[in-house]
Amino acid sequence: MILESDDTDHDDNILFGNDTSTDDSEHGKNSKTVFIESKKKPSNTQSDSSYNFSNYLEIYEQIYKFYCHDEHKQWQLLFSDIIKQSSTPYQILYMFLDHTLSTTNNKKHKMVIPFIEQFKQIKSLNKNIELDETIKHNILLKICRRCLFSQLESIIDIFDLRSIDNRLIVINFINEQIEQHQDIIFISQLTKILKLFEINAIPFEKIIIPLILKAQWETIKFVVEDNKILQRKLLQTIDDLISTDKTKVRCLLAEYSIGINSNYIDIHILKRAARKLLKQYNFDLHDFPNLAMHEKISFLKTLFVRKYLERKNICDNEDDESWSEQIKELIHDNRNLQIKLIDLFVDYTDLDSGDEWARFYNLEDFEIPEQVRIHRQNILKNDTITRSISIKPSICLTKQLKDNIYKPTILLSDIVYIETDSDVDPFLNRFECARCNVGSHLPFVGFDCETFMDPTQRTLNSQIISTIQLASLLISRNQYLYGVFDMLALRLQFDIKSLAELAQRLFCSRDFILLTYNYACDTSSLIENYPSMNDALMQGTAVIDLFRVQQYILEHCPQVFPYYDVLLNSKSRGLSELVRLCFGRPLDKSMQTSDWRKRPLKQAQLIYSVLDARVLVDIALLIEKRTHSLQIPWSWSNFKGYIWTNKAFKKRVGMSQKLENS
Q: Which of 54, 57, 172, 580 counts the highest number of beta carbons within 10 A?
């Protein structure tokens, strides 16, 4: 128990002094006078059983005054006299606590525990003090509603709410509150009471569903703790709530008497929460079918965005085939996903493809949208069909669009493909030996990685690293050198120590500057795939994040970018926008939807993969040249090393530890 006291007070049990009843100090006499005078005043009530606290307000304020001045013996004496002279001492305690918690004075709120502890001392000397039946309901309705969680245990104990008879009252009361579902904060507080009771009288689902629907995640965390059974139950409950079958959801709510309209459930919030919990608890996605379905639908929508929006004017038959293969693997024989696929083709006004895929999956007319059904009927009748918007532009348009993207010449012969661990050291040595050929600073090495989301994996939002790419300009030969590390092959050959050493040579190198873009995002994927890389990634002493360089230049010296236009005021901060600022054209993203799982990689994929790493070096060289010509002071050392926020640092360290343990 922590009490407020001055520096000279070292008595840990100051509340429980044995001389309180015989205190003859001036304050003691004054406190008795206040109490006696208050008893002489006319009362609006006939007995102590009244809930009218007005008779005690003056005494209460005197107690508070003593408390604020650390005159503990004085307020204890006054409070004890009130309790001892009452025929219903529990009711007096209840009224004092109720009045204390109903105020907005936080200093007064600190008196709750001292009041209770002093009452305990009085009760220990008088075994005949009994709890009034009339106040039990109000203890739950008012005191437990307003008190802090740190005060809850003491309130439960002093009012003996753990007794067999009182437990039943508490359980019935909590049941009623959950079914009424009027005050979710109060329900959260009552849920904590049940947890402190360590009883399972109310089904877990009945307790947790209202908390889930009102996003009371701190309370949920308190209830579930590290109990794997309850963690699985929590995810299973969320999985049931996000079912696309509304009848099942309504039945679930009715089963536990939860009076909420299922149409008002925010599926998006629940999905986001479930994704986090799935990672946090380390469960398998496929154990939760509704969540798996939603995740696959999200991934399906992502594939459509990439095909129809991000590269809608680029014609690439190989990429279209890769896209179709990913669709087939994702959907497999799931009828609901097959129907959803056709709906998406309608959304993107591609009725031809919608009809082709509907035929591929043998979907009946009643299973497909009306637009596709009419389109199919017109084909069967050999009528003239008004074709949907074509997604394959003319050859001239395709060439024109390709001319408007930044795609420097990259020779396949300059790319070193590394798929065995014995090839790693010789390649990195070439970069490390290049430092002697550079003057004012270490050589630049661009870094990037290609990832994919595998629908067969445990969590769809986990990025699996396919390749790591490096690029550097060898000044002595005026030639670029590229390296593509096949991580799907190397991860089978590397042990934990080898991966840690590789990360150390890359991210903490003393022989080159490692250029990245949005380093924080890269580290999340790398740590999730390779936890042993964590230490080197978090140090990042060789890293310069061009995302932060971009932010600095735009704020302090935007004229460094040749194609900066204040009138455009572009809000984009991606790498493609940075390339446009430097070279007047956005970055080539034509192969973004390629299947990076399959081996061997196509030549076009190899060239595309090193492009992002190459442009980072091009950008750094251009910034260096422009700042020099504009006579703007510039030093790369000001940007070297990555400074983590506390939140980001804790998140990545925690992620690494959890993955290593699992």
A: 580
Residue at a domain's end among 251, 279, 307: 279
**Strands 415-418, 543-545: parallel, antiparallel or unpaired by DSSP?**
unpaired
Whether residue 390 is contained in a domain is answered as no
Q: Domain of 436: which CATH number?
A: 3.30.420.10
Residue 82 and residue 213 share a domain: yes
Q: Give helix 72-84 / helix 26-40 axis angle, nearest 10°.
A: 30
Total domains present in the chain: 3
Residues 219-269 pLDDT 10s: 888 888 888 999 999 999 999 999 988 899 999 989 888 878 888 888 889
Burial 184-207 (b: 16+ CB within 10 A, else e): bebbbbbbbbbbebeeeebebbbb
Query: Residue 422 falls within a domain, yes or no?
Result: yes
The overall pTM is greater than 0.85: no
Q: Apex CA 410: angle with CA 474 and CA 451, to 5°?
A: 100
Strand partners, 449: 468
Tokens of 227: 């109990």
Q: Whose structure tokens read 């709530």?
A: 241
* 478: containing domain: 415-648
For 106, other C-beta atoms within 10 Å of its C-beta total: 7
Going by their DSSP bridges, the two strands 444-452 and 513-516 should be labelled as: parallel
Cα 20 to Cα 14, 33, 59: the distances in Å are: 10, 15, 17
Ramachandran angles phi, psi of 505, nearest 5°? -70, -30
Regarding whether 546 and 433 lie in a shared domain, the answer is yes
Q: Which residues, 6+ apart, have CB-to-CB distance to 70 below 8 Å?
A: 4, 5, 6, 9
Edge to edge, what strands does the sheet with 415-418 contain? 415-418, 479-486, 464-474, 444-452, 513-516, 543-545
